[in-house]
Amino acid sequence: MTVTSTSPASEIIDAFFEAIDLDSSGCIDEAEALVIAKIGFGQDEETAAKYWKEDLCSEDSNHDNKLSKEEYVAWWTKKSDGKKNDDGTFEKKYAESLISSLTKVQSVAEADALCTAFFDVMDIDGSGAIEENEAKTISKKGFGADEAAATANWKKMLTDMDTNEDGKISKEEYTAFWMSEAKDKLQSNGSFAAGYTTYLWDKLETLKAAE
Fold this sequence. Notes:
Blueprint: H1 9-20, E1 27-29, H2 30-41, H3 45-54, E2 66-68, H4 69-79, H5 92-109, H6 111-122, E3 129-130, H7 132-143, H8 147-161, E4 169-170, H9 171-181, H10 196-210
Antiparallel strand pairs: 1-2, 3-4
């Protein structure tokens, strides 16, 4: 859903719900909320968990630890009290800040954003390419691999991704391989399918901790 700062408040709220409901289940669950809070807004694990339990879940009327669209809208209605214009739009500054936040939230589900995020974490020195020492560091620190396993993983990466055989992996090579491998999980809207997005962001957090 495409909205702007002048869209009706109800449409902006709907757009947020669709963006946060990563698996399109019709409900926002804790895992989705935490991913959005951490990746979309830079919150740490503790802050994200507290926000879910103490703020968002205040409208979980049936106590199933999920938010239906109706519950989410009820939460939003309270959150945005006094920030609407008579014509049903949000006040200008508030609306603009919401659209900025929405752009971040929507990017969380986009497949190309995920590929870029993984590449950027693995490209430790920011050179624009993944090199052997970087890949091995991630394998060892992120996944507990020993030297032999890390070396084997790097060789496989070169075989699978290094199409120009220069001994390193560019962002283009990495993304092309990634999208090919995950094509069965890619939806027509450019995002990954149910559950896969949440799984990938959890893996990304592991890689970040390894840097």
